Here is the input.
Amino acid sequence: MEKELSASTKNSPWISTSTDFKRAIWEIARRLSKLNRLEVKLTLIRRNKKYSGLYKGTKSIQIDPVDYLVKYTGEQVKTAMDFAKSASEVLYYGRIFDKDVLESTIWTRYSTPFDLPEYCYIPKKYWTSGESWLDRLVWNPRMDSFYDADEMMSDRDGQIASSRQPSRR
Here is the structure.
């Protein structure tokens, strides 16, 4: 039996996470540029899908939202499912425990905690001094959707790979 779903995100106890690195970088860039955040925190967490029967500690509650959304109908549900699939979303209930936090990093307009893959950036010959890492991305974080950004990163990755191939004469 399918049901109509109506939900509010106000004060939700669910924490949305992504297992997709590109999606996470796109979201950081979007929040820094389009939402004008001064900094964005990225936390790498250990995901324990199953616990040993001997484990006696506090266990996290996590779900794949798509498994639950398929029971409902409606345009909002379709939008939520599309997002959950494209973001490789995993929802955690209540909190993420300190024991599961591997590392937390702070991103700003002018600093990244580690070097991003080359496919995220335009070619270095087009860089100018004084630009932030956001200005050098192959996509425009103020305007481009994740789908467009992902396609641009894939195209750039292909350009890099072909430039490293020995020329055939």
Notes: Confidence is low (pLDDT under 50) at residues 1-6. Residues 146-163 form the longest helix (18 residues).
